[in-house]
């Protein structure tokens, strides 16, 4: 039983079918230094997001997420719902 639990715990941390991805979103609507806080909060709430770095100076958000749990569309929708439409930066 102990062994099974350890295996399950490990699987939860690094499922073999999931891949971590990082995407840079352009968030042009940020107008002051508190805007990134709102954007970061919105992105962090999305299931599957593990890391969010929002830069006000660059008007961008770098999001690391599990592509088995979420998608870029869900991320851009989350920022849009928070009042900050975003798009993938290339
Ligand atoms: Cu602001």
TrEMBL record:
Keywords: Mercuric resistance, Mercury, Metal-binding, Periplasm, Signal. GO terms for cellular component: periplasmic space. It is found in: Periplasm. It comes from the Bacteria. Residues 1-18 form the signal peptide. The keyword Metal-binding applies. Its main location: periplasm. Gene3D superfamilies: 3.30.70.100. GO terms for molecular function: mercury ion binding; mercury ion transmembrane transporter activity. The keyword Metal-binding applies. Residues 21-87 form the HMA domain. Belongs to the MerP family. Involved in mercury resistance. Acts as a mercury scavenger that specifically binds to a mercuric ion in the periplasm and probably passes it to the cytoplasmic mercuric reductase MerA via the mercuric transport protein MerT. Monomer. This is Periplasmic mercury ion-binding protein. It comes from Cupriavidus cauae.
């Amino acid at each position: 039983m102990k062994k099974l639990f350890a295996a399950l715990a490990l699987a939860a941390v690094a499922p073999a079918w999931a891949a971590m991805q990082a995407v840079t979103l352009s968030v042009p609507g940020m107008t002051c230094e508190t805007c990134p806080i709102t954007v970061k909060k919105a992105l962090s709430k999305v299931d599957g997001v593990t890391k969010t770095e929002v830069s006000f100076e660059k008007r961008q958000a770098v999001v690391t997420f599990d592509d088995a749990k979420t998608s870029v569309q869900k991320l851009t929708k989350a920022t849009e719902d928070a009042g900050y439409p975003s798009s993938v930066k290339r």
